């Protein structure tokens, strides 16, 4: 897969101006759940998302449903995939198989449910476009963004990411082989088409600088990076945590992972960089990424040539999130979820990574030094 390619197995990468999110109301969602899964919906809540629509729903306990053999005690998530990704059903099949693969290997994640046709997805016409529709068992737990921060939790997150990728080394699926998606880190050069949404000239300069750096520092190195299937979007809204058992009831631990919409064949160092990026956005502290790195490298090897790319990769993910967030908001002004990176101080973090002079008490973006210090202290 070429990092600069504009085509994919599903046709083309997202083009500026395209509207791909399903146009659907709650009544239509209720009817879908009943027709496809026999569910009489008692409660329905739309969950935040970028291009897909996700609805948490619970069954009416007074209505017997013989169609689902193993009822989920915590309810379900009905996922309506965007019209562009829905053109490549092999990707949907790969996502379903991947969730089942990880669930069988003791990774807590959603599990797909078969519909009335015995299938794990169906293609439905909604608002004049075809969308893939699936039902997943709802996985309970608090999100990483909603619990107290601690170095111990960030270290665990690093271990979790490394363990996840170690398991994914044994997963392959032909549906992912040709997948290209605008949110894949390898597609950063394609952001040239979307940068027009950045109105502040200083921010635009930063965007252009990072895109160019990615082209000359990362793209020529792609053949040297370890490659495989990755989750592709490990962030504070996709990581589940729970409380540790007594007597440590005030502490949390990493419990699971959700949202496999960005699963892809890519590079393991991209997975690490994405997780580090979103953790720094959550904490506002570059140092926290070094603690995550400590947990990762204790569990999984990170070669020197891959470590040297991390600052560029983190900067690129920030730019990707900021540019595509601004673009999506322009297309869908009601979708405030897409501005979470900007609201979390994404531009300030990007400047700190790119422009800040070394601090007298040490460089908190020297993540390997932070990791070594944390491991020594622990």
TrEMBL record:
Stretches assigned to the Aminoglycoside phosphotransferase domain: 48-297
SUPFAM superfamilies xref list: Protein kinase-like (PK-like)
This protein's UniProt keywords: Cytoplasm, Kinase, Transferase
GO terms for cellular component: cytoplasm
Catalysed transformations (reactions): (5R)-5-hydroxy-L-lysine + GTP = (5R)-5-phosphooxy-L-lysine + GDP + H(+)
Main location: cytoplasm
UniProt subcellular location: Cytoplasm
InterPro entries for this protein: Aminoglycoside_PTrfase, Kinase-like_dom_sf, Pseudomonas-type_ThrB
Molecular function via GO: hydroxylysine kinase activity
Record-listed E.C. numbers: 2.7.1.81
Protein function: Catalyzes the GTP-dependent phosphorylation of 5-hydroxy-L-lysine.
Protein family per UniProt: Belongs to the aminoglycoside phosphotransferase family.
Name this polypeptide is given: Hydroxylysine kinase
Organism: Papilio xuthus (Asian swallowtail butterfly)
Lineage of producing organism: Eukaryota, Metazoa, Ecdysozoa, Arthropoda, Hexapoda
């Amino acid at each position: 897969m070429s990092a600069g390619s504009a085509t994919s197995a599903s046709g083309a990468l997202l083009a500026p101006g395209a509207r791909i999110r399903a146009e659907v109301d709650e009544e239509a969602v209720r009817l879908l759940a009943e027709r496809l899964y026999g569910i009489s919906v008692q409660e329905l809540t739309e969950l935040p998302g970028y291009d897909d629509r996700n609805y948490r729903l619970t069954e009416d306990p007074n209505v017997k449903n013989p169609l689902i053999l193993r009822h989920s005690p915590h309810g379900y998530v009905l996922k309506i995939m965007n019209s562009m990704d829905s053109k490549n059903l092999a990707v949907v099949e790969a996502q379903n198989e991947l969730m089942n693969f990880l669930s069988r290997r003791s990774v807590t994640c959603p599990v797909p449910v078969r519909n009335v046709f015995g299938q794990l997805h169906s293609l439905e016409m909604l608002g004049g476009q075809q969308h893939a529709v699936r039902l997943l068992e709802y996985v309970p737990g608090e999100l990483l963004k909603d619990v107290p921060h601690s170095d111990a939790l960030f270290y665990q997150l690093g271990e979790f990411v490394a363990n996840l990728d170690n398991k994914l080394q044994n997963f392959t699926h032909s549906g992912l082989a040709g997948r290209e998606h605008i949110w894949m880190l390898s597609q950063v050069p394609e952001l040239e088409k979307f940068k027009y949404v950045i109105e502040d000239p200083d921010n635009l300069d930063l965007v252009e600088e990072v895109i160019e750096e990615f082209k000359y520092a990362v793209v020529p190195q792609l053949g040297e990076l370890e490659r495989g299937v990755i989750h592709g979007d490990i962030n504070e809204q996709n990581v589940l945590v729970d409380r540790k058992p007594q007597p440590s009831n005030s502490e949390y631990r990493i419990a699971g992972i959700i949202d496999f919409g960005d699963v892809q064949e890519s590079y393991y160092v991209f997975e690490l960089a994405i997780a580090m990026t979103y953790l720094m956005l959550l904490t506002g502290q570059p140092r926290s990424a070094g603690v995550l790195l400590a947990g990762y490298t204790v569990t999984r090897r990170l070669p020197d040539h891959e470590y040297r790319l991390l600052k560029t990769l983190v900067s690129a993910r920030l730019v990707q999130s900021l540019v595509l967030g601004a673009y999506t908001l322009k297309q869908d002004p009601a979708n405030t979820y897409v501005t979470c990176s900007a609201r979390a101080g994404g531009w300030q973090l990007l400047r700190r990574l790119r422009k800040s002079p070394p601090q007298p008490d040490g460089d908190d973006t020297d993540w390997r030094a932070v990791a070594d210090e944390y491991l020594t202290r622990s």
